[in-house]
Amino acid sequence: MKLVIRETGACSDVGQVRQSNEDALLLSDPVYAVADGMGGARAGEVASAMAVAALHGFQGGEQELAQAIEDVNLRIHLASRNDPTLLGMGTTITAAMVDGDALVLAHVGDSRAYVLRAGQLRQLTDDHSLVGELIRRGALTPAEAERHPQRSVITRALGADERVDVDVLRVPVESGDLILLCSDGLTGMVGDAELARILRGGGELDQLAQQLVTAGNRAGGEDNITCVLLRIGTRREEDTEPERPPIVILPATALDAETPQASAADRSATPTGRGRILVLAGIVAALGVVVAVAIAFGLQWAHFVGATADGRVAVYQGLPIELTSDYTLYRAVEITDLPTAALSQAERATLLDQRIGSRGSAEDRIARLTTASPWLRLPPVPQ
After folding, report:
1. Is the pLDDT score of 110 beyond 60?
2. How far apart are alpha carbons 171 and 169 in whole angstroms?
3. Contact, 281 vs 204, CB < 8 A?
4. Mean pLDDT value across residues 33-49
5. Residue 350 has what pLDDT?
6. CATH topology of domain 2-297
C-alpha cells in the first residue's frame, strides 16, 4: 500500500501586533509548504509569495525539490539586489512531500516541521537561527532560548545570498501520522507541550489549524501565525477518492482588498477578529478561484515586464505564474505601444526577463529603452 496525504488543513493569521501578514503557505499535491517572509515595507510578502509559487505544480524527487528551492533563492536574491523597494527581502521555507514510505522535507530558516505519532510530538527540522545554533552547541537550553533577546535572529534564509544550503531530510512515516508545518509565529508563542495537547484533541484538520492559531494569538500573537496540517494515510488500488485540485495560498493580506469575492463573513472568520483566517480543507475548489483573483488584485507591490498576446510590451501586476490555463497570478496594468518585434534579441531578453520589482521599476525599464531608441514607439493612432 502506498502512503499518501489523506487530509489537509491550514490556517494563517496576521497576529496581534503586525500590520500585515508576510507568511505564505502552499497546498499543491504532492508538495506542501510554509514560508515566513522578511524585509522592509511589504518586501517580505513578495519573497514568501515567490518561494511558495515556485513549488506550485512541482513534480520530481528530493533532489529536484532542493534544486527548485535553490533556483527560487537566486531569483529572490536578484530581485532584492535589482530593486531598491525590495532590498533585503528574504524568506524561510519548509516544504514537505510523501515519497514511498517517507516524508521528504526541504528546509531553510526557522519555520518548523513536526510529526505527531501515538500522541508524541517530535520536531523534525533544525532551526537555522542564532538560538538554534546555541542549543545544538549546548550553550543554551530550550527554555532559555524561549526568553533569549535574539531568538528571532535567523542564520539562513532564501534570498540572503546567491547560493543557499537546503536541508533535505528523509523521515520514515506511518499511516496515521500527523505532520505540522508552521512559521515561528506559532512556535514562538506556543510550546511543544501545548502544541501536542491541541493536536491530540483530534478532529478535522482545518479546525485543529484554527485552534493552533487561536492559541498563538492568546499567548500574545507577536508575529504572523501560519500552520499546515497533513494526515498520512494509505491509498489502495481500489480507492476512488477524487484527486484534490492543487491550490496556492499566498500572503493572507493579499485577500484584504475589498473585492466582490470577500464577504463580510469571510472578513470576520478569525479567532481574534483581527486577521483573515484561510481555512482550506473543505473548500479547495472554490478557494482556487478566489485566491487567483485575490492575488491578481492584491499583490500590488509586485510587478514585471512582459508581452501581450498581440506582441506589445506591457507592465503586469503580480507574479509570472500560471495556476491553470484559466487562472494566473498576474494581470496587465499598463499596455504600451512598444512592439516586441521592434526589439533586438538582446533587448527582448533584457526587457522581458520577468524580473520582479515595483511598478515604478518596471516602468523605468521601459522608459530607459524608449528614451535611448525613440524610434521603437509607434506613432499615435489617428483619431
Report:
1. yes
2. 6
3. yes
4. 85
5. 73
6. Phosphatase 2c; domain 1 (3.60.40)
Residue 99 has pLDDT above 90, yes or no: yes
Contact 299, 250 (CB under 8 A): yes
Cell numbers at residue 207, please? 479546525
Take residue 35 and report the three cell numbers written for it.
514560508
Q: Which residues pair with 318 in a beta bridge?
A: 330
- Are the beta carbons of 36 and 226 closer than 8 angstroms? yes
**Angle at alpha carbon of residue 284, lines to 57 and 246, rounded to 5°:** 10
Q: Please list, residue by residue across 238-264, b when 16 or more beta carbons sit within 10 angstroms of its beta carbon and e when fewer do.
A: eeeeeebebbbbbbbbbbbeeeebbee
Q: What confidence category does residue 369 fall into, taking pLDDT thresholds of 50, 70 and 90?
A: confident
Domain boundaries, the chain: 2-297, 303-375
pTM here is 0.69
- Residue of 32, 28, 21, 5 whose CA lies nearest to 329: 28
Q: Contact, 112 vs 127, CB < 8 A?
A: yes
Mean pLDDT of the residues in the chain: 77
pLDDT-derived band at 100, boundaries 50, 70, 90: very high
Q: For position 143, what pLDDT does the model report?
A: 62
The reported pLDDT for the residue numbered 274 is 31
Would you state the pLDDT for residue 153? 67
Amino acid (1-letter code) at residue 112: R
Residues in a beta bridge with 2: 235
- Whether 196 and 119 have beta carbons less than 8 Å apart is answered as yes
Q: How many angstroms separate the CA atoms of 320 and 99, rounded?
A: 29
Residue 267 pLDDT level (bands cut at 50, 70, 90):
very low
**E-strand stretches of the chain:** 2-13, 23-28, 31-38, 90-91, 93-99, 102-108, 112-117, 120-123, 167-172, 178-182, 225-235, 247-249, 303-307, 312-322, 328-339
Q: How many CB atoms lie within 10 A of CB 195?
A: 23
